[in-house]
Amino acid sequence: MEHFEITHRDAMGRIAKLETPHGVIETPTLMPVINPNVEFISAKEMKKFGASMVITNSYIIYRSPQLRDVAIEKGVHGLLDTDLAVMTDSGSYQLMVYGDVEVNNREIVEFQKTIGSDIAVPLDIPTPPDSVITLAEEDMKTTLEREREAAKLFSNEKSLLALPIQGSTQPELRRKSAEEAVRIAEEVGVKAIFPIGAIVPLLDTYRFVDVVRIVLEVKSVLPAWAPVHLFGVGHPMFFAMSVALGCDLFDSAAYALYAKDDRYLTPYGTKKLAEMHYFPCSCSVCSKYTPEEMRRMKKGERARLIAEHNLYVCFEEIKAIKQAIKENTLFELVEKRIRSHPYLVAAWRLLREEKYAKLMELLDAGMKQTFFYTGVESLYRPAVTRHAERVKRVELNGKEFVISTNMLEHADLYLRPAFGVVPAELIEAYPAGHAEMPPAEYIEEEALKVAVRNLLDFLKFHKDKKFRIRAEDVWKPHLNNLPPNATLE
Amino acid sequence: MEHFEITHRDAMGRIAKLETPHGVIETPTLMPVINPNVEFISAKEMKKFGASMVITNSYIIYRSPQLRDVAIEKGVHGLLDTDLAVMTDSGSYQLMVYGDVEVNNREIVEFQKTIGSDIAVPLDIPTPPDSVITLAEEDMKTTLEREREAAKLFSNEKSLLALPIQGSTQPELRRKSAEEAVRIAEEVGVKAIFPIGAIVPLLDTYRFVDVVRIVLEVKSVLPAWAPVHLFGVGHPMFFAMSVALGCDLFDSAAYALYAKDDRYLTPYGTKKLAEMHYFPCSCSVCSKYTPEEMRRMKKGERARLIAEHNLYVCFEEIKAIKQAIKENTLFELVEKRIRSHPYLVAAWRLLREEKYAKLMELLDAGMKQTFFYTGVESLYRPAVTRHAERVKRVELNGKEFVISTNMLEHADLYLRPAFGVVPAELIEAYPAGHAEMPPAEYIEEEALKVAVRNLLDFLKFHKDKKFRIRAEDVWKPHLNNLPPNATLE
Questions:
Q1: Which of A37, B4, B111, B118 is most buried, by the most CB atoms less than 10 A from its CB?
Q2: Is residue B306 within 8 Å of B259, Cβ to Cβ?
């Protein structure tokens, strides 16, 4: 779509230009939350940390006569005194927390239009995890009706409209919700972004597997042009993985909320100031103070400094991710970052499931130079499956072939960890030939198993040919189930 | 020893106070190399980045009449205009590179004493990797003679003396070299530090497995009080692993050499400025400039800025490591950092070898609170083997016991990934009870295998008792070789 132009891709992640009335935003990015009621770090200051867009809550503004008057008169940008793009939330969060809000969808959407929000949000209903399907479906229908109502108000507008995707933890509803949201955007003609909603309760309970499943289900039906906002996700430990799954926008109230609670963000999790002896960061705050000095400060002063660090580290992570996309090493980055939590490791392993592996294979468009092995997770990258498919298309001239595990000896084909069979003529090509991997005797058994699975597949495919396999000792225990056309020497 | 006081431990790493004539240095730390001939980042400025000690080359000073006169008159601290502790190298590096130096051991050691070096180094002989044992042994003997000669000059001195450990890639020679160096320190009575030498040629060729093997062999004979310097290692990607193996000191010429070559350090490897689009860092340099802006600068100005970043990131990593030691999460940190290179993953897997696993188990003294699983590497932490041993000592009252894989059902014992058998009474205790791990259906097969190995060991140990095992499906393929005293329900 014309308002979202993808410029670089890797894994399912992308760098793109999102056009808003207040300028073109490079995604992936993070929108810091500005609370219009609380003076903390101002929207104006956010540029310094790397922000190009902020998010605030139109419902809070709407409910406060004072804020409302200023916003109507000067617009939301005037209220926040910023020329950055401003997304506004609708009160859905309050709906989730308090069960009710004192505004209806049409009112809050029109209000957002009036105050000149760059991205407005309808009053969608965040259905909690594990809701029964009938409730989740009913909520979803209401949400979609509200989205259509909002879309009509934003058709042919310069501003963007968020069309949130709900459906609780029901994969089929999440897909349906995404499909319908896309239909609304296309039929009514709005510049849409697609937030995935009601994720926070899952994160709060470490249900990262469910989060990844929801994102993958949604991405399986969204078109590539759809900008995706992982609504409520603001911790840098999730950014790399979420971007690699195709998310483009994040928002963070966490930088401030955590800071006020003396919690310090890192791309690998959260640390409590009370337990810190050193700041593992080089930002201007962490270079200037020690944790001990910070603990002796007044609470307000300290919160402000921790919030600054939290913002620095969030945007540092965004930069690391964008750099990884441009150099096509996003898989490597994610495989490092998932070590922040055991359930992130588990969540990433969802990509071993066939339908998700296929989706990743379909969408991963990065032109990679090197296959950099980081551990067993690397075995499930598209490069490995694609190699196995490609190898089957290589023509074998002759009847009998030697396969060796020793790259230093002459052979027709080689057997390499992870990849399996590599024809001699591909031994210099990406991926198997450009793979930085530990040698077989130091690699995990799983890497040999995946290789042998690919080998067996290959042998079966060429059942009219004969193969003699010369294997080093470490391979032998894995080669005791060869088909009749192969012998182990 | 009185000059090296260990205050905190985790894995084989430690935080310690190293006493020098110029103050007490907290280790682990990095000594930036100051080239006395080249004006770049001065010793004086190094404090800003976090340095408390620098290293310079006494041979370069000795060979330059001008530098030499100043050093003799004002001392090496006067020459470098710093009150930081200063270690001086001896010319061994030049010996390695050029094959000869124009000074003998006694002269250069006496010179270092004269100019007031805080840590002097004898003229040891760095034997290259893969040298034949006879040559390596001869070099080592010469090195040890020179160390004894130097030690006599430094006996009862306030200054410290480095007693380098050589021996090429021959494990038995490395051990011998370490033993003899310790003997010299004790017999002659010097405040010693123990550099492990000739590591750089191994790093340059990605032979990280060999590096780890050498360090482990050396550590297997060095006493705990011995401060260890991994000589020539200055890239932050190696710091966490090296500290976890018991190294305390690093030195870096890399921060400057790399910078002059437009190379940017990260704890995960090196990036070329030409290939960077974003700086994934929050230091004052990276917050101020983009890679594009930096590329347009003059070479000298740019080199200076990259060097500053390189120093920031090195000391950021030192801080991250010290924080991890204090909170006893060094294993978790290392298991993240090894993802920087496939051969680091391979190198860390040396700890699966029995003798090295035992050494780690013996020396790991961290009081851990939680077992945070980061991937298959976590299976080889001492916590897992210690648990298996401890479980065998738990008394079993009765004759028949139920073992379940489902923590939600009542059972006498539970079967958990990684740990194996966990008696119900230990299910709330560290490590198995305080383990954050993916559930069995999402964890790697290797974690189930390690658990089953521990289970079988336990069943064999209690061969007079009977066990009924209730296993969820994911476990069943691994439980088909049970001994006669156990049945799968």
A1: B118
A2: yes
Count CB atoms within 10 A of the CB of residue A111. 22
* Residue-wise DSSP of B96-141: HHHS--SS-HHHHHHHHHHTT-SEE------PPTT--HHHHHHHHH
| Structure tokens, A14 | 């992308």
If you write DSSP's letter for every residue of A122-188 in order, what string do you get? -----PPTT--HHHHHHHHHHHHHHHHHHHHHHTT-SSEEE--B--TT-HHHHHHHHHHHHHHIIII
Would you say A157 and A197 are in contact if contact means Cβ atoms under 8 Å apart? no
**Range 405-444 of A in CB contact (< 8 A) with B:** 436-439, 442-444
CA dist., res. B127 & res. A175, Å (int): 64
* ipTM for the complex shown: 0.94
Structure tokens at A69: 């008057």
If you count them, how many residues does chain B have? 489
Cross-strand partners of A270: A265
Q: Give this prediction's pTM.
A: 0.95
Q: Tell me the pLDDT of chain B (489 aa) as tens digits.
A: 689 999 999 999 999 999 999 999 999 999 999 999 988 999 999 999 999 999 999 999 999 999 999 999 999 999 999 999 999 999 998 888 888 899 999 999 999 999 999 999 999 999 999 999 999 999 999 999 999 999 999 998 999 999 999 999 999 999 999 999 999 999 999 999 999 999 999 999 999 999 999 999 999 999 999 999 999 999 999 999 999 999 999 999 999 999 999 999 999 999 999 999 999 999 999 999 999 999 999 999 999 999 999 999 999 999 999 999 999 999 999 999 999 999 999 999 999 999 999 999 999 987 888 999 999 999 999 999 999 999 999 999 999 999 999 999 999 999 999 999 999 988 888 899 889 999 999 999 999 999 999 999 999 999 999 999 999 999 999 999 999 999 999
Report chain B residues whose CB lies below 8 A from the CB of A286: 282
- Name the average pLDDT for chain A: 96
Under DSSP, is residue A24 helix (H, G, I), strand (E, B) or coil?
strand
Distance of alpha carbon A367 from alpha carbon A327, whole angstroms: 9
The tokens describing B391, both together, are 């479980």
Cis bond leading into B342, ω under 30°?
A: no
Query: Which among B58, B57, B60, B116 is positioned nearest to B84, based on CA atoms?
Result: B116
A425 burial (CB, 10 Å; 0-12 / 13-18 / 19+) is exposed
Structure tokens at A2: 């014309």
Q: Does B284 touch chain A (CB under 8 A)?
A: yes
Cβ proximity of A80 and A54 under 8 Å: yes
Q: Among residues A10, A89, A118, A412, which one is catalytic?
A: A89
| Catalytic residue, candidates B89, B124, B139, B248 | B89
Q: How many CB pairs under 8 A join A and B?
A: 139
Maximum separation of any 2 CA atoms in chain A, in Å: 85
Chain A residues 124-163 within an 8 A CB cutoff of chain B = none
Count of CB atoms within 10 A of residue A49's CB?
A: 23
The number of beta carbons lying within 10 Å of the beta carbon of residue B458 is 23
Amino acid making up residue A456: L
Which residues of chain B from 302 to 361 reach within 8 Å of chain A, CB to CB?
312-313, 315-317, 319-320, 322-323, 326-327, 332, 335-336, 339-343, 345-347, 349
The residue among A239, A275, A282, A289 with the most chain B CBs within 10 A of its CB, best to mutate, is: A282
Q: Which residue of A has its CA nearest to B338?
A: A374
Could you give the C-alpha distances from A299 to A260, A296, B425, in angstroms and in order? 8, 9, 42
| Distance set, CA B346 to CA A38, A432, A462, B355, B418 (Å) | 51, 18, 34, 17, 20
- Shortest distance, CA A9 to any CA of chain B (angstroms): 14
A66 shares contact with chain B (CB less than 8 Å): no
Q: What one-character DSSP code corresponds to residue B33? A: B
B89 given a catalytic annotation: yes
Question: Contact, B278 vs A325, CB < 8 A?
Answer: no
